[in-house]
């Protein structure tokens, strides 16, 4: 398998920046890896916080322990927060950028004489 394909697949299927690490470009990979990790962590905290609120409501008896009732409550609350949406955008941008950049780097390296 070509290094271009391998790097793009690593960035696409594993995590943003993984293809750069494979191409031995750790600093450039961290440009994608660090913001993606921060966004993923923040997004996870946001989801867990919302789940905690819903579970507290179920335990208090103000929300029926029925999946349809929980889904309806999530829909009325809006489900996502601005921070959660921003984190998702950052994560997707890092993912797409890492895939494209790893392809560019691998193609440039393939053109250079060894």
Descriptive overview:
The protein is mainly α. The protein has one domain (3-111). The protein contains five helices and no strands. The protein has helices at 3-13, 18-22, 26-60, 67-77, 82-111. The longest helix is centred in the middle third of the chain and has 35 residues, at 26-60. It starts with a helix and ends with a helix. The mean pLDDT is 86. The chain crosses the membrane at residues 6-23, 30-48, 82-106.
Keywords:
114 residues, mainly alpha, 5 helices, transmembrane, membrane
Count of beta strands: 0
Percentage of residues in helical conformation: over 70%
Form type:
rod-shaped
Low-confidence stretches: none
Number of discrete helical segments = 5
N-to-C CA distance: 18 Å
* SSE succession: HHHHH
Integer average pLDDT: 86
Quaternary: single chain
Provide the number of structural domains.
1
